Amino acid sequence: MKVDGFRIGLVTVIVVLFGLCGLAAGMYMTQARHLVGADYTAMVTDVVRAQEDPVKLRLGLDSLLDSPDSIHIQQVSHLMWLIPQRMESLRHSLENSDLPSQGYAPLLEELDYVKQQLPTLGERVERVMDERTPANLDSLRVLGLEVEEGLAWSYSELNELLHQASAEQRRMMGWLSTAVLLLLSMLVVVVGGLALSLLQIHRQRERLRELSETDALTGLSNRRKMQEMAQHDFARAARQGGALSLLVLDLDLFKEVNDRFGHPAGDKVLKAVADVLVKRVRESDVVARMESDVVARMGGEEFAVLLPDTDRDAATRFAERIRGDIERIALPEPADAHAITVSIGIATAAPGEGFDALYTRADRALYRAKARGRNRLEHA
Ligand SMILES: Nc1nc2c(ncn2[C@@H]2O[C@H](COP(=O)(O)OP(=O)(O)OP(=O)(O)O)[C@@H](O)[C@H]2O)c(=O)[nH]1
Fold first, then answer.
1. Beta-strand relationship, 294-299 and 244-251
2. What ipTM score was computed for the predicted complex, to two decimals?
3. Listed ranges 5-9, 119-123, 285-289; the one with the highest mean pLDDT
4. Mutate to test the pocket of ligand 1, among 220, 248, 255, 268 (most ligand atoms within 8 A of CB)
5. What is the topology classification, in CATH, of domain 2-191?
C-alpha cells in the first residue's frame, strides 16, 4: 500500500515535471522557430550587390558631366533601369522575411523616395545631352548626389539590419542549445533517479519476501515456504512419477532444556539441530538426486524435511542418520551431560496424495513415536 502510494507520487511528480519542461520548451521553440529558421544569406548577397549601384551611378554621372560619350550614356541608362528592379526585388524579399516590419519601414520609405526621383534624373540626363549649360549640369549633379546618397544610406541600413538579425539568430541558437542540454540533463537525472528508486523498491521487496519465508532463529525455510516448495515438488512428482517422502521431527522433552538451562540454551539447541539437518540434506544432494530436499522449521521445536525422489526405505535410512546425529549433539556446559533426542514420523506419498494429507499422516506417525518412548522413527 505504502509502496503503491510512493510509486503514484513519484510518477505524478515526473509527469508534472516533464509536462512543465515540455510546455516551456514548446513556447520557447515557437518563438525562436521564425528567427532561427530564417536564412538571410541570399538577401545579404543581394544587398552587397545593390551597394555597388550608388557607386556606379556616381562614377557614371561624373563621367557624363565631364565628357558625354555613348558608353557613359549606356552605363547610366542601364543603371536607371537596374536600380528600380533591385529595389523591388529587395522590397519583396524584406516583406516575405521574418524581420519585423518596423525595422525596415524607414529605409523602404527612403527607397520609395529615391525611386520617385529616378524619372526626373533621367530627364535631367537627357537635358544635359541636349544642352550642356552650367544650369543643366548643376541640376543633374545635385539630383544625382541626392539619389546616390539615398541609395547608399538605405542599403547600408539594410546591411546593418541583416547583420543584427544574424547576430540575434546566433544568440538564439546558443540559448536553444543550452535549453536542449538542460532538458537532456534533467531527463538523465529524472530517469536515473527513477531507476534507482525502482531498484531500491525491488531490493526491499526481495528482502521482505526472504524475511517472510525464513525462520529468523535458524535461517531455515518456514512453514509457508515449505508449503510453497512442496507444491512444486508434488506437481513434479505427479508429472514425472517418483517417490516423495516427508519426515516430521519433534525434539523430545525440549521443555526440560529450557527449564533447566534457560531459553537461550534452548535456542542454541534449535540452531544446532537445524545445522545437522542442513548438513545431512546437502550430503544427500551430492548422491545424484536431481531435486533438492527442503528443510523447514515448522514452529517451536518441530522440523520437517521433504525428500523428493526418495522412497520409504531411503527415507528411513536418512531419518535414522539424522536421529543419530541429533543424539550426538554435544551441548555446552552446564548442559553437557544432557542428551538431545528427536522423534520422527515418516510418510511416503501415495499416488494423488497432496502435501497436507501427507503431513497429517507423518504427524500421526510422529505422535506414535512419542507414545512408544521417543528417540525413534515411526512410519505412517
Ligand atoms: N528456546 C526456545 N524454546 C522454544 C522455542 N519454541 C518453542 N519452545 C519451547 O519448546 C517447548 C516445547 O514443549 P512441549 O510442547 O511441552 O514438548 P516437549 O517438552 O518437547 O515434550 P515432547 O514433545 O512431548 O517430547 C516449550 O517449552 C516451548 O517454550 C524457541 O524458539 N526457543
1. unpaired
2. 0.97
3. 119-123
4. 255
5. Four Helix Bundle (Hemerythrin (Met), subunit A) (1.20.120)
